[in-house]
Amino acid sequence: MPRSQLLFRRDGRLHVTAGDGRERIADLVRQCAELSTVVAGDYVFSISETALWGAAARGATSADVVASLDAVSAEPVPSDVASRIAAFMARWGQLRL
Fold first, then answer.
1. pTM value?
2. Residue 23: per-residue pLDDT
3. CA neighbor of 69 nearest in space, from 12, 8, 17, 20
4. Which residues, other chains included, contact 29 with Cβ-Cβ below 8 Å and sequence gap of 6+?
């Protein structure tokens, strides 16, 4: 079976292809995104504020999240995705109750 890959779609979603290592890649992607669709064994994730804030609550920085995505992706993390991650995670902790 071919190796699984992480691909970045033009609409900003993350696509994890079927193959060896898919669950490991999906676990890394879950730290910043929520599963939106499963199509023919491929996972499609959407970056969400909730998932990113959860990563921030666990002590991860935006640089950590981008680096982990970059380590498993088939291509470098697009700059618009990296800046979106940084913008969402920068809001973590600004509201105090």
1. 0.85
2. 92
3. 8
4. 6, 14, 16, 43, 45, 69
